[in-house]
Structures are given as structure tokens and as C-alpha cells.
Amino acid sequence: MRRPRWGKSVTFFGSSGASTESPPASEDGPADSQPAPSGDTALGPADGRGVVVCGSDRTMLRVVTELVSSGEQVTAIVNPASRHFERIGELGANVLGVRVVSEALLRRAGVADAKDGNPSSARALVLLDNDDVRNVHTALTARDMDPDLRIVVQMVNPRLGAQLHSLLGDCVVISGPSLAAPAFVSDALEDDELTWLDLGGRRLVAGQADLIREPHLAVLADTTSSATPELLPIVSSDPTGDIVLGTGVRSVWRTKDVRRAGWLMAMRDVFDRRVRRIAAVMLFLVVSGTVLTHYIAHPNIDWWRALYLAAGAVTSAGIEDDTFSEAEPWAKVAAVLVQLTGIVLMALLTAVVVDSLIGARLSRVIGGVRGRPRNHVVVCGLGTVGARVLEILAERGVAVVGVEHDEDAPGVQTAHRLRVPVVIGDSSNEETLRSAGVQRCQSVLAITNGDITNLESAMVVRELNPEARITMRMFDHDLAQRVERRLGLGHSRSVSMLVAPAIAAAVANRRSQVTVPAGRRVLLLTEVTVEPGSVAGGLRLGELDEAGGLRVLACQDGTTWDWSPAYDKVLQPGDRIAVAGTRSGLARLLLATRAHHPEAASGRMDP
Predict the structure, then answer these.
(1) Cis ω on the peptide bond leading into residue 23 (within 30° of 0)?
(2) Residue 141 CA: distances (Å) to CA of 173, 194, 279
(3) How many CA atoms lie within 13 A of 332 on its CB side?
(4) Model confidence over 319-340: pLDDT tens digits?
(5) Which of 81, 232, 258, 278 to pair with 140, CA 20 to 30 A apart?
């Protein structure tokens, strides 16, 4: 049994994203009770320039709300057909209603052309279109116009997003599914053991050592004594009790509680009751024909040849004309009737089998659920977020069943690749949910794109399985609150609300941080830039470390992150470091890395 842990704070952000949740209350002594510096949270831009946001969906509405509330001057380029068009204008943004973003429109929004020699009145461009190609096209156009413009892009395709830096240079790529999926997984598993984060140019996870895949990048805490863990230990006496930082979770052998239907189950569904009845009639005709042919034909023929002739007649393969040439007239008529009946039955059998194949889609049947699964997670909605949820659950070794009405959805292909059972159907339909085994499941994630569909699915699940944990994906905040309070259908999350703070932080270039709980203490992981004229400039990396208070994890020199930096490396202005530390240790580091802070010299920087 794993040691108990107190508190829970999971932060999800993209590249250069911002913290979205407050850290848990710490019961450390006075050394760790100092609040983190707030110099990064000033409202509004320092130079008075604005932000241009392009998009039309619900994420656009959340992002504009976040930026306006932060004091930003926002110019929103919105499709007039969007249902959020009027609402975005009511938030205080300058709205430009167009269907296609062009160079002339960007210039009108404040992105100046470098050829004109005039500086842009926009310091950042946020692209939130659901079409990755359009986002890339607009980003390339804006980069040609203003090489210094800060570009933040939301990408659906992670592979394309990973290549975007080579096209645009300095930009921030944020993936909504990557941000939101870990939150839904944590809800489904009631899991506070793993914390996912982006740090030092890598996707990382922090948690118990027995859950994290080796090699471990750093030991964050030794929880041998869970009440008073040792933070950032140099040597750990009990590696199994460590909280470590790594690049992924261990591959866990998945139990066979949930299995795909497979070919045998698929054939059973294709050859349904209609096919079996037709086959029974044909078998009766073959047996009767065999007996008739053996005794009536003249001269009598052996049983095997009689069976061959009867089967050929019933299956429309034909019979030898001279076999019944000397037989009685009634025997000839019987042979003709058997053959005609066989022709009709073969045509009917073909029609039924083809109808079963077209109606059931063999790939759909093969991916269904076999048996009566128990204690599994049901994921309703296999879009881009659902696909990422399936990947994380499969990586964790959790038994999972997917439900999706569109068999061409991205998550369906992901499920086939991971050999995860998928039920094709409406997730708000009781029979569909029964096929997924919700009456015996552990938890349900209703994460389709429709609030009403998710609400209906949750209500059906509550009737079938009152003990199941339910998490709904809902955009309407007021509806979500009322549902949680009055109907008791679990709690809800919004992908757009998880993404918007990260995008706003990327626009403002604010420092991002993630909290990792360790017993009753917490560690903060973040990236810090060494400013010109700061105390840290000219120091060696090893001089920044504090025993139990701060540790340098990686250093960025130029565009490359080094996760095994030399401790005698001398820091230069502009270098960026990834660190883990307590609140007080991080506060002293921030003072040392900022320009013109003579008081930082008195802070303790033990080698």
C-alpha cells in the first residue's frame, strides 16, 4: 500500500503556459510560508500594445475573457456566423467580423508590415482556429510581416505543432487535448499520485518512483517518513519511497477485465439468427436430398456421391442431368423443386450476410466489448481529447472502454491501435451504455463536444450505476454549477477553461509553475530567465543549489535544453534554467536572477 499524501494540486499547461490552480496549503515552517513573488502577475502590457486573437469557438470566448480581465487591449477576429460573435463584443474587445484572415486584415488589426518601417500596435497574435492548416498559414503570414511578433498557436495535431518552431522560430504552441486530458484522467481515477507538466522543453511527470519510468531525471523528495519528507535529497536511502521526476509512467501489464470482441465474436454477430435459420433449412434439404438420391436414383448410388449431388442442387451448383434420367417422374420433379428452393435460399443467405456486414461494419463489431467487464473506466466521446485520455489510461494500465457515435473519430483509430474496446453508438442511449458495461464500471468520463449529450449520458449512468464516479465536460459554467449542486451528477470540467489561462500566460510571457505535493510539504517546478545585470549572471550553476531548498534541473543555452548540465557552467544573461524548489528557495532565486536587486546578494546561495 502506498503512503498517504495530503493535498492535491495538478497544473496543466502547454509550452510556456501558466499555472492554472493554486498550490495546496503547506504546513512547512516559516521558511516555506513566504508567498511567491508576484512580479510576474502585473495586469496589462507595459508598452500599451494590444493582442490580436483569431478564432470562433468556445475557447476563443474563454481566451478573450481571460485577456480582457487581465487588462489587455484585445482585437478579436471572429467569423460573423459564430454563435459567440455578439458575446465576444460584449466583453470589451474590438471585434472584426470576417470569414477569412488575410494580410490586409492583420494589418488592420495592428500587425504592421516590416517593409513599412512602422512598429506594430499588436505585440502578440493568438491563433485558435480548429483548422491547423489555417493557423499555420496565418502564423507564417504574420511572421513575414513582423519578425518580432509573439505568436501563440493552438494546434490539434501534436506532430505538426512540434515542427512549428522550425517554421516560425520563437512561438508558443499549445495543445488543448494535452492540457485537458490529464485532468479528466485524474478525476476518473481519483488520482493525486501523478503530476504532469511541461518543463525544459520536455513533457514530464512527477510521482512515486514505482510509477515513473526509468531513468529518473531527479529525486524531488524522500517520503520514507511521509509526515516530514526530505525535499530534494542528495542521496536517498529508500528509492521506492521517493517522489521523482521522469519522462513517462511505467508500462503496466493490463488485466483482461475488458477485452475486445475479436473475430469470433464478430462472426457470431454477423451470422445472426436469420442466417442460422436459413442455414438450418438448407441443411434439411441437403439431408433429405441425400436420402432421396441414394434410394430413388437408378441404379442406386453410394452415400457420398448422393451427398455431393444433393449439396450441389441445394447450393445452386447444379446436378448431373443423367443421374435422374431413369428415375420416376415424381423424383425428377422433387429434384427440380429442391434446386429451385436452393437458388432462393442462396440468394436470401447472401442478402442477409451482406446486410449484416454493411449494418454492423465488421471493424465496429471486432472492436466491441466481450463478456461482462467490471471496474473499468468508460470514456464517452472519442474526439481529440478522448483520444489523449485513452492513451494516458492505456499507459497507466487501466481497463477502459470507449463509446463514440462516429466511427471515423480520431479516438476510434487510437482505440484500435491500443486494442481498446469501442462501442459505436449514442452515448446518451441506455443500450449503448449497457453494452459498454457502465452498470459495473468504476467511473465514467462524458467528454463529447455537446453539453446536453454529456448531461444526458451522466443521468443515464447515474440510474444504471449510482456508485460510479462521473465527470462531465461542460462549457456552460452556470449550467455546470447547477447540475453539480442540484442533480448530484458528479463534477464537471471545461477544456476551454483549462486552456485559456495557459494561453493568457503565454501572451503575457508570465512565469509558469507547477506544484508537486510531498506529504504535507510542496515543491514548485518552474523556469527562470537570468536577466542582464542580475546577481546570478556570472555565477556557476552549482552555486544556485540549496540543500533542501532549490535544485537546478536543466539549463537552456540558446535554443537547446541540457538536462545534464555541468555544475561549473557559468550563467550568462539570457540563459534560462529549469528548477525545483521550495517557496522560499524559489523566492531567493527570483531575486538573484532579476536585474538591479542588490538585496539579493544577502540571500543564501550555497554551492
Answers:
(1) no
(2) 17, 40, 66
(3) 10
(4) 554 555 566 666 666 766 776 6
(5) 81
- DSSP code per residue over 397-442: T--EEEEES-TTSHHHHHHHHHT--EEES-TTSHHHHHHTTGGG-S
> What's the full length of the chain, in residues?
607
For 326-378, the pLDDT digits (tens) are: 666 666 667 667 766 777 777 777 777 666 655 555 444 445 665 577 788 99
Q: Which of 233, 229, 240, 162 is nearest to 202 (CA)?
A: 162
pLDDT category of residue 567 using cuts at 50, 70 and 90 = confident
**What distance in Å separates the CA atoms of residue 22 and residue 297, rounded to the nearest whole number?**
92
Q: Locate cell 534541473: which residue?
A: 553
Query: Rounded to an integer, what distance in angstroms lies between the CA atom of residue 473 and that of residue 452?
Result: 10
6 φ/ψ angles, rounded to the nearest 5 degrees:
-110, 140
Greatest alpha-carbon pair distance for the chain in Å reads: 120
User: Which 3-state string (H, E, C) describes 481-525?
Assistant: HHHHHHHCCCEEECHHHHHHHHHHHHHHCCCCEEEEEECCEEEEE
Supply the mean pLDDT for the chain: 76
Other C-beta atoms closer than 10 Å to the C-beta of 601 total 10
The whole-angstrom separation of Cα 426 and Cα 446 is 12
Interatomic CA distance for residues 116 and 106, integer angstroms: 14
Long-range contacts of 390-394 (CB under 8 A, 24+ apart): 390/414, 390/415, 390/418, 390/420, 391/181, 391/418, 392/181, 392/182, 392/185, 393/185, 393/188, 394/254, 394/418, 394/420
Q: Model-level pTM?
A: 0.64
For residue 31 the three cell numbers come to: 521558511
The continuous run of DSSP H or E covering 168 comes out as: helix 158-168
Amino acid at 485: R
Q: Euclidean distance between the first and final Cα of the chain, in Å?
A: 38
Nine-digit cell string for 194: 501523478
Q: Grid coordinates 517520503 are at which residue?
A: 223
29, 58, 5: which is closest to 500 by C-alpha?
Answer: 58
Average pLDDT over residues 110-137: 84
In terms of Cβ atoms closer than 10 Å to its own Cβ (0-12, 13-18, 19+), residue 478 is exposed
Query: CB of 221 within 8 A of CB of 233?
Result: yes
Burial class (CB in 10 A: 0-12, 13-18, 19+), 566: exposed
Residue-wise pLDDT for 508-561, tens only, equals: 776 667 888 877 678 889 988 888 888 888 899 989 998 888 999 999 877 788
In the chain, the amino acid numbered 209 is: A
Q: Please give the Cα distance from 496 to 411 (Å, whole number).
A: 19
Q: Given this model, what pLDDT does residue 106 score?
A: 92
Q: How confident is the model at residue 8 (pLDDT cuts 50, 70, 90)?
A: very low
Nearest one of 36, 52, 46 to 71, comparing CA atoms? 46
Q: Are 561 and 244 in contact (CB under 8 A)?
A: no
- What's the rounded Cα separation, in Å, for the pair 467 and 462? 8
Compute the distance between CA of residue 480 and CA of residue 10 in angstroms, rounded to an integer.
21
- 546 DSSP 8-state letter: B
The residues facing 150 across adjacent strands are: 124
**Directed axis angle between helix 303-314 and helix 273-296, to 10°?**
130
Is residue 561 within 8 Å of residue 555, measured between CB atoms?
Answer: yes
